[in-house]
Amino acid sequence: xxxxxxxxxxxxxxxxxxxxxxxxxxxxxxxxxxxxxxxxxxxxxxxxxxxxxxxxxxxxxxxxxxxxxxxxxxxxxxxxxxxxxxxxxxxxxxxxxxxxxxxxxxxxxxxxxxxxx
Amino acid sequence: xxxxxxxxxxxxxxxxxxxxxxxxxxxxxxxxxxxxxxxxxxxxxxxxxxxxxxxxxxxxxxxxxxxxxxxxxxxxxxxxxxxxxxxxxxxxxxxxxxxxxxxxxxxxxxxxxxxxxxxxxxxxxxxxxxxxxxxxxxxxxxx
Lengths: 117, 143
Fold this sequence. Notes:
Number of strands of chain A: 6
Number of strands of chain B: 5
Strand order of the largest sheet of chain B: 1-2-3-5-4
Helix content of chain A: 40-55%
Strand content of chain B: 25-35%
Structural class of chain A: alpha/beta
Distance between the termini of chain B: 29 Å
Strand content of chain A: 25-35%
Radius of gyration of chain A: 13 Å
Number of domains of chain A: 1
Distance between the termini of chain A: 38 Å
CATH topology of chain B: Heat Shock Protein 90
Largest sheet of chain A: 6 strands, mixed
Number of helices of chain B: 4
Shape of chain A: globular
CATH superfamily of chain B: Histidine kinase-like ATPase, C-terminal domain
CATH architecture of chain A: 2-Layer Sandwich
Number of helices of chain A: 5
CATH class of chain B: Alpha Beta
Largest interface: A-B, 23 and 29 residues
Oligomer: heterodimer
CATH class of chain A: Alpha Beta
Number of domains of chain B: 1
CATH superfamily of chain A: STAS domain
Order of helices and strands of chain B: EHHEEHHEE
Helix content of chain B: 25-40%
Radius of gyration of chain B: 16 Å
């Protein structure tokens, strides 16, 4: 099994990113590149479905933080859903749950985004 | 009177390459469970170890893959001690300033989060230098 695989699919104009594996200093470039590709192609609303994410280190959080400004400047956002308990704990410890909208399921996140529209 | 029982220790030495991080974090997580921690706590210990070893590889060794990182897991009474050694200048404990999460939320920036995770997820984090080596020592108590 690869250390990290990332699938991205379009759901009604929302880029749903599904990382599988772990994001740390070894895999972060792959994660960052996937985010950059979305931004460069003008897809600024990104839902990270973290169901398959076993852990994320500060390197991964830094990658998100590094791109959130251009994303929000373009009217988009990064949302998170399906965080495993340990992954939520990492986000929460660093205050990221105040910076990003976190949902229990993909459906909840998509509904919230649809409500916004 | 019985002599004190020496703590049980396990040592692992890895090349200073990020590809081995998952090997180390997996070992740290399993060791935490063996020490008596629950799964959630063991996950926190493994993240702290990831951050500490990443600091050595990327910041102490500047990504140079020709060095070594030594990791020692020490099972002591009601705690797991993790020692991480390298051979160049390390962090000076009295110079470390951890980011304030509330300020971080107001003024987000990239970087500076690894040490904060280590300090939040472990009970003690210390940095020292001795005999030409730099050490990061992290302790998690079993509750």
